[in-house]
Amino acid sequence: AGEAQARAGAYVAVYSLAALVCAPIVGIIADRVDRLTLTIGAFTIAAAGYTWLGISTDVLSFGGMIPALVLAGFGQSSVAMAITVLLAQQCPPDIRGSVFGVQSFFGAVGILAISWGGGQLFDLVSPGAPFIAVAIANTAVLIAALALRAQERSAP
Length: 156
Hints:
By secondary structure, the protein is mainly α.
């Protein structure tokens, strides 16, 4: 149990460090691209990272898990920042605080839902299923963003 806890702690550390390192990079990119491009990039990275974690078969190989953890960490950080940038640019200033409050509330609800649902998926389906569920959710947002981009391009 102690060895498993130590390994899990190392995985969380790699994931968290990747997210931390990624944040200023995404901030710089956010200043240079439009919000939809940023959203598409962020959700692509997140979907890829969580898919990789979900399909990984040798989770005990720390070296083999590092790239997947880094990609998922980058993706999660990118998504959080892309959503913040999107809301900041789209919301009227007089309701921006309320919108960010609602975003935070539903973010917390989402964390609770994936924590409970992910535990159920882990027990009933497979250890990788919670990651695949998050990858599917990220892919759904990515598809919506791509559809919006296609709509933009086809508009006269």
